[in-house]
Amino acid sequence: MDIEQLKYPIGRFVRQDSYSIAEVKSNIQIISALPSRFINLLGGWNDEQYNTPYRPDGWTIRQLIHHVADSHINAYTRFRLALTEDNPVIKPYEEQLWAELPDAKAAQVELSLQLMRYVHLRWVLLLNSFGPEELARTYVHPQSGRTFRLDEVIANYAWHSEHHYQHAFQLAGRNNWIG
């Protein structure tokens, strides 16, 4: 398997100009299901497995799970900002550096799985309340200067969910860790 396939097991995110209500609902379902999918996949893993990188020079599964929790907490906050402010400039963060912090390298995976579980419950409750007006709300990412519509951000986080799930799932398959 080549490095691009290991980095992007489902391909890179491809932005659409618009999203139908059916696409938005499907994307919300993907986000909603992620914590349970991770819990089911990783439930019996040990520290050696959690400390295995999903690809050469990549994060360990432990770092990956902590990253997803960190990323989705930030996403939830960004949605709330976009709903309560007029096109706010969001705060970026250095995800690579966050993944190198001591808690991301050593904390129990279960902590972030449970954090993800509860953040997703709140986030999905919020997302499911959206109508066309909320889906059209926006925020600005200061690094790119680009304005993002919330329907696109939902699609991006559905992709992000599956992207990282596949990192762990495919690693498990390559190592015969799936029972």
UniProtKB/TrEMBL annotation:
UniProt xrefs under Pfam families: DinB_2 (PF12867)
UniProt keyword annotations, A-Z: Hydrolase
The DinB-like domain, residue ranges: 34-167
GO MF terms held by the record: hydrolase activity
SUPFAM superfamilies: DinB/YfiT-like putative metalloenzymes
Coiled-coil intervals: none
The protein's name: Metal-dependent hydrolase
Organism for this UniProt entry: Dyadobacter sandarakinus
